[in-house]
Every structure is written in C-alpha cells, then in structure tokens.
Amino acid sequence: MRNSSRSNVDPFIVMDVMDAARQAEEAGRHIIHMEVGQPSTGAPVAAREALAEALDHDSLGYTVALGLPALRKRIAQLYGEWYNVDLNPERVVITPGSSGAFLLSFTALFDSGDRVGIGAPGYPSYRQILHALGLTPVDIETSLDHRLQPVPQDLTGLDLAGLMVASPANPTGTMLDKSAMTALIDAAQGQGAAFISDEIYHGIEYEAKAVTALEVTDDCYVINSFSKYFSMTGWRVGWMVVPEDHVRVVERIAQNMFICAPHASQVAALAAMDCREELEGNLAVYARNRALMMEGLPKAGFSRIAPPDGAFYVYADVSDLTKDSRAFAKEILDEAGVAVTPGLDFDPKRGATTLRFSYARSTADIEEGLARLTTFMAARRG
C-alpha cells in the first residue's frame, strides 16, 4: 500500500539505542542506562495507592475530554504555589502525555504548511510531529553564547507562524530567565507568531526556579507533564494551559483525537501532586547525580560540557573525539556497557559531534557508568 509523504519521519534514535541496550541485556550483559530521559523511580506511593482504591470502587470509564475537574483545579493551584500565578482551572486541559499536548497545540494553532520555529539542539519529536501534521519545522541554530537557547534576533526573517521553546531544555538542561523569556515572547508576538512553552522539566531545577511563560503573558500555550518531576512516564498523562478563548477549540479537537486522557492515570496524577516530600527526595538524587557528572565526565575525557540548570541531562561536544556520534555511541555501548544518545536526535546539522548523557537513574548507576566511561576512554587513548 502507499504511504503519505507526511509519514516519512525520522526515527527517534534514542529509542533505537534503548533497543540495542535491551538486546545486550537479554544476552546477559549489565548495561548502565544514560540514554533515556526517564526517572528510575516509579510513581509516588500515594499515587499508586489512590489508583488501587479507585479500582475497587470505580469503573474508570471515559472522563470528559478536558480531564477530571479536580485534577484541573489542582494543577491551577500548582501555578499559585510554584509561580504565584493566579490561573483559572478552566484553562487547563488534561492530555495523553505531553505528546498529546503537542498534537493538540499544533493542530489548534497552525494550518498546513505553516512554519514553526524550534531550537536546535532540541527535542526531536517536535520536528517529526510538525512534519507528520503537514507543517514546516524551522530549526533555529542556537549558540553556546546564548546557552543553546533561541534569542529574539534569531527570529528575524523566518516568517514564523509559531515558536516553541523549552526551558529547562532537552538535551541541554539550560533555562530561560524571565527577561529572556519575555524577550522571546515579545519577538514572536511582534511578528504574529503563536508562542508555545514546553515546561515538562519544571520542578527539576538546581539553583533557580524555572520561569513559566504564564508569568509573562496569558496569550500563549504552556505544555507540561507528569512524566519527569512526578516520575510517571509510562502513565501517559500531561496537561496544557491555553488562553480562555482557545479552550473550546482544543476541547473539540481532543474529543475527536483522544476522547480523553487515561482515567486511571488522571486519578494517580491527582494524588501525585501532594507527594512533595517523596518528589523532593527524587530531586535530591538528581542533584547528587548532576554533581557527579560535572566532576566525572571531564575526568573521563568529555571536557566540553556546560552545567545544566535543570532537567537531568548533560550535552557534550565530542567533536574532538568523533565526527560520527552514532558510531561513537555504539562503540561506548559495545565496549563499556553504557548506553548514551548520539546528538543526531537533537540537531540534524551539528549532532554528529555531540552526545547526550542522562543522569536520571540511581546514584549507584551513575557512579558505575562514570567508572566505565573513564576506563573506556583511557583504553581508547591507548
């Protein structure tokens, strides 16, 4: 049968790396996972208990498309707690993970062929989802001088219908402060471009609180998820905040695309939001791991790195070591038993000379991974 041109999207290379690591484990090897952006912890205890209770007393059928009212209200409350933002719960839409929110956002905001700016390096699925929807992703090549985040002058002459930013970003972990966020919003809106803020890593910050776009404007889309800070990747539940006059637009699309986010996941998510002590304990582990990475990677030989402000990644320039990051990542997996992600996922032009290291796993795993990388690099140098 024929395929659409829209279906010709690139693979998500990190998933291929995960599969190669799985095959190695099935063959009996012990692999240290530094490739995937997934917490090693599961959903908070109270979240699992809440779902177990619900399973005994509720059929857990469809919810309304916008999500459980109690969960929408609790998310709105979170914006007051974290950012001192007074948010109307009616603007909150529960989605099947942040991926569902991307689909809803792009469908609601853009017409076929519209040009949408995304930072490079950046999360690869932005580009592929835009392409699959018949939209035109426009890579904005960022620089180290601006901590690999877009700046207003980068938008000049791009004729964008939209701009998506991420702070903290994947793969770099860098963040936009309020002045930088404001400048980008002003620049996008000044040329009539919709502004979308991916805030999935909020809550995982180390020295300063991340800024939400809602501190600057209500005329934006904000996307978040329970996958990272709340440690619920496989539950596939996220949310988006949209302007009040967009709620019904998004609701109609959600009704037809998804019906609703998984009811069971919404129940667990609601309980997870009050598990602060456990979640902050997870954050303390990431902070320890970050310190280990910032000390251990340069010692191993990966010296071209910058401290991440948030998330749980280190993005390394390995142009002094390889011109083929995919082959280099395979070499590291085969010889050191450490799975890492080649930068090709994140930056089609410059990714052949970069790697992403995730430190979302246990501290013991990070220590072992760094030891293996040190041994591998020493042998490689001869």
Series of H and E elements: HEHHEHEHEEHEEEHHHEHEEEH
- The CA-CA distance between the termini, in Å, is 52 Å
Q: Number of DSSP helices?
A: 11
Strand content: 5-15%
Low-confidence runs: none
| Total strands | 12
The shape, in one word, is: globular
Q: What does the main sheet amount to?
A: 7 strands, mixed
Assign the structural class, choosing from mainly alpha, mainly beta, alpha/beta, alpha+beta, or little secondary structure.
Answer: alpha/beta
Helix content: 40-55%
Q: Roughly what is the average pLDDT, rounded to an integer?
A: 96
Radius of gyration: 21 Å
Strand order of the largest sheet: 2-8-7-6-5-3-4
What does it look like?
By secondary structure, the chain is α/β, with parallel strands linked by helices. About 40% of the residues lie in helices and about 15% in strands. The chain has 11 helices and 12 strands. It has helices spanning about 15-25, 45-55, 70-85, 95-110, 125-130, 180-190, 245-255, 265-270, 275-300, 325-335, 365-380; strands at about 30-35, 90-95, 115-120, 135-140, 160-165, 195-200, 220-225, 240, 315, 340, 340, 355-360. The strands form 3 sheets. It has a 7-stranded mixed sheet, with helices on both faces. It has a 3-stranded antiparallel sheet with strand order 9-12-11. It has a two-stranded parallel sheet with strand order 1-10. It starts with 12 loop residues before the first helix and ends with a helix.
